Amino acid sequence: MAPELLRGQYDRPADVFSLGLILLEMVANVILPENGDEWQRLRAGDLSGCELEQVSSEMRNLIAAMLRPEPEARVTVRRVMEVVMRERGKSKASRGALEMVRGIRRVERKEREDGIGDAVERVCTPVSKRRQ
Fold it and tell me: Would you say the pTM of this structure is higher than 0.90?
């Protein structure tokens, strides 16, 4: 969860932060902590507890930029897509990340077509409640 979500600030940078955590799990092949000191360090943008030697420098830099504590300092989804596209053939994790980013792009397109709230509501509403 992005730090700003605790302050009630929901926007695209929070999604970028969450995607950064998922990407970190995928490329570093780790299970992220649910809480505690290591979790707080990740939230603060500190990746020193993660072994990333096998990850390309471009991907490490991307993840670090996605996990910046300040929402306005994070990279955009467009930038994430650019890096992931270049990295896509290098590992299974990169290909998986590409699919996640494509999903976010589909949601963004739908938001533009329908109005911002509709797509977000569809994505965040459980299927069981949508059918009622």
Answer: no
What are the CA-CA distances from residue 60 to residues 40, 101, 107, 126 (Å)? 19, 17, 26, 33
Helix segments in 1-132, DSSP class H: 12-28, 37-43, 57-66, 77-87, 92-114, 116-124, 127-130
CB 67 within 8 A of CB 42: yes
The chain-wide mean pLDDT, for the chain, equals 76
Say whether 27 sits in a helix, a strand or coil: helix
Residue 68 has pLDDT above 50, yes or no: yes
Q: How would residue 130 be classed by pLDDT, with cut points 50, 70 and 90?
A: very low
Q: Read off the amino acid at residue 4.
A: E
Q: How many domains does the chain have?
A: 1
Predicted pLDDT at 8: 86
Q: Is residue 73 classed as helix, strand or coil in its secondary structure?
A: helix
Q: At 81, list the tokens.
A: 């897509």
The range of the structural domain enclosing residue 13 comes to 3-130
